[in-house]
Amino acid sequence: MKRPLQNDRFLRACRREPVDATPVWFMRQAGRYMAEYRAVRAHHSLLEICKRPELAAEVTLQPVERLGVDAAILFADILLILEPLDVGLEFVAGDGPSLRRPVRSGSDVDRLPAFDVETELGFVAESVRTIVGRLNGRVPLIGFAGGPFTVASYLVEGGHSRSFVATKRLMYGEPEVWHRLMSRLASLTAAYLRMQIEAGVDAVQLFDSWAGALAPEDYRRFVLPHSRAVLEPLAASGVPVIHFGTQTAGLLTDMRRAGGSVIGVDWRIELADAWDRLGSDVAVQGNLDPVALLGPWPVMAEAARGIVASVAGRAGHVFNLGHGILPETPVEAAADLVQLVHEESARLLAG
Ligand code: CP3
User: Fold this and answer.
1) Average pLDDT for residues 178-200, to the nearest whole number?
2) Among 85, 161, 235, 260, which residue's Cβ finds the most Cβ atoms within 10 Å?
3) What digits encode the pLDDT tens for the residues 57-72?
4) Which pLDDT does position 94 carry in this prediction?
5) Please, is 336 exposed, middle or buried when counting C-beta atoms within 10 Å of its C-beta (0-12, 13-18, 19+)?
6) Which of 187, 196, 237, 234 is nearest to 85 (CA)?
7) How many domains does the chain have?
8) What is the pLDDT of residues 228-252, one digit of tens each?
9) What's the gap in Å between 320 CA and the centre of ligand 1?
């Protein structure tokens, strides 16, 4: 049996229920900007932290304790599902992820081994159980996976990309191979998220971080059916599903059609405008520019208050940054921002 939550305002906002204050958490809230995280990283690689539930739990809890955020996010990575595919995944210090054997052709796709998610990635379920125990009902836990397009981009490019040339070349040039690869990733991802939900996460987020690189018609043709294959079956689980991407102003209604009860947006569109386009039957998450946290406090505070005020009176806002928190962020600024969002929204709600 799960413990009742002491702080459920994140889940309430996801369900568009009334809250006492706007909930806030940060994408990539466990990470290098925190001294506590760097201390663990000094002794363990990223993959090692992901694979040792007690370490994953420790770093997952760090921002909950230090910042007072309203949700924890499982410590893992969107690329973990690629490891059992035997593509030579490595996280290179300073360079990010790198794959020794990227997937570029139909025969590369055919060579990807079949594997059982529970067997190969069961350590993630174990992390979830450990974290839920250690949270002891303080705040909900968010599980996550990468969107099929974003994960495919790393798989095809062999690492991070700016223009996604190899990915789009495969998509346009060999659509049949592309759809085969995307179907494979979608069913893996659906099973992976189902495992996390069964292990006890309270919500999930699909990070389709790079979907905004696509023309709307290409998103609809090459990505939407696969994202929907991940998201649609999750609706029955009853847990809130956040569907996030960056630079998605032109894709919002299509992302909504793909699925998710909360849509995450970045700062390149006004939150109220995004919400108008999405419709009032969905919750929204966002959308402060992460760089604002590096600037002078009054500038950041004004931007954050502006976001809170712009959607005050509508149920269903989860405050977040528009993308992951940057390693250069002063921890103090992040903690102060959490407090500011709580105080400002509570004041507006009290009217
Ligand atoms: O949010 C959290 O606190 C949970 C942990 C988390 C990580 N990665 C751990 C991590 C989450 C949610 C992710 C998601 C992720 N991973 C995304 C989607 C979100 C986004 O930023 O768009 C992507 C694209 C990845 C792939 C990835 N992993 C990249 C591109 C990098 C290198 C870039 C970087 O920040 O160094 C990683 C490494 C990674 N994953 C780190 C962390 C904390 C870096 C820190 C380290 O090496 O210790």
Assistant:
1) 98
2) 260
3) 999 999 999 999 999 9
4) 81
5) middle
6) 187
7) 1
8) 999 999 999 999 999 999 999 999 9
9) 16
* Inter-helix orientation angle 122-135/53-67, to 10°: 40
State the CATH number of the domain containing residue 205: 3.20.20.210
Residue 61 lies in a domain: yes
Answer yes or no: is 329 within a domain: no
Q: Is residue 109 part of a domain?
A: yes
User: Ligand 1: distance of its center to the CA of 27 in Å?
Assistant: 9
- Residues of the chain with pLDDT > 70: what percent? 99
Q: What is the mean pLDDT of the chain?
A: 97
Chain center to CA of 23: 16
pLDDT at position 171: 98
Strand, helix or coil for residue 204: strand
Q: Residue whose CA is closest, atom 39 of ligand 1?
A: 77
What single DSSP character describes residue 24? B
Amino acid (1-letter code) at residue 177: V
- Ligand 1 midpoint to CA 287 (Å): 18
Mutate to test the pocket of ligand 1, among 26, 27, 28, 331 (most ligand atoms within 8 A of CB): 28
Measured by CA distance, the residue closest to atom 35 of ligand 1 is 96
Strands (E), the chain: 72-73, 89-92, 96-99, 141-146, 203-207, 241-244, 262-264, 283-288, 317-321
CA distances to 15, 20, 23, 336, 344 from 350, rounded to whole Å, are 20, 9, 16, 21, 10
pLDDT higher than 70, residue 21: yes
The single-letter DSSP state of residue 292 is G
Map tokens 């049996």 to a residue.
Answer: 1
Say yes or no: CB of residue 25 within 6 Å of ligand 1.
no
Identity at 246, one-letter amino acid code? T
Task: Kindly state the average pLDDT of the residues 132-159.
Answer: 98
Provide the residue range defining the domain that includes 84.
30-287
Which residues are catalytically annotated? 28, 32, 41, 77, 154
Buried b or exposed e, range 218-254, using 16+ CB within 10 angstroms:
ebeebbbebbebbbeebeeeebbbbbbbbbbeebbeb
pLDDT band at 1 (very low <50, low <70, confident <90, very high): low
301 has a pLDDT exceeding 90 = yes
Reported pTM: 0.97
- Res. 3: pLDDT tops 80: no
